[in-house]
Amino acid sequence: MSWRALVVAPLAVLLVLFALSNQQPVRLTLWPFDLEWDASLALAVLVVAALAFLLGAGIAWGASLPHRVRERRLRAEVTALRAQLPPPPPAIRA
User: How far apart, in Å, do the first and last CA atoms of the chain sit?
Assistant: First the structure.
């Protein structure tokens, strides 16, 4: 069993238990647009958590962009330098 399964399985169980335990309806409003809708508490909380996760992942991806560009440039430089090396001597077999 992989370490990911050991992490994901308990989280999935907790999410299911949370959703089953919080079925009461809540009224959600969006100020200043006077939008209102009813949803279960679990749905409201999980949607907000998913949006926050996606926002954080997007911010982390954007922050890593300069590092990924530098890494690509350095890999190309290493490849070019390796191409300039003389071939290795043949192996001596005994």
Answer: 44
Largest Cα–Cα distance of the chain, in whole Å? 85
**Helices first, then strands: H and E counts in the chain:** 2, 2
In a domain, 57, yes or no: yes
Residue 55 lies in a domain: yes
How does pLDDT run across 47-79, given as a tens digit for each residue? Answer: 988 999 899 999 999 999 999 999 999 999 999
* 17 Cα distance to chain centroid: 23
CB-CB contact of 40 with 22 (8 Å): yes
Domain count across the chain: 1
Domain encompassing residue 12: 3-84
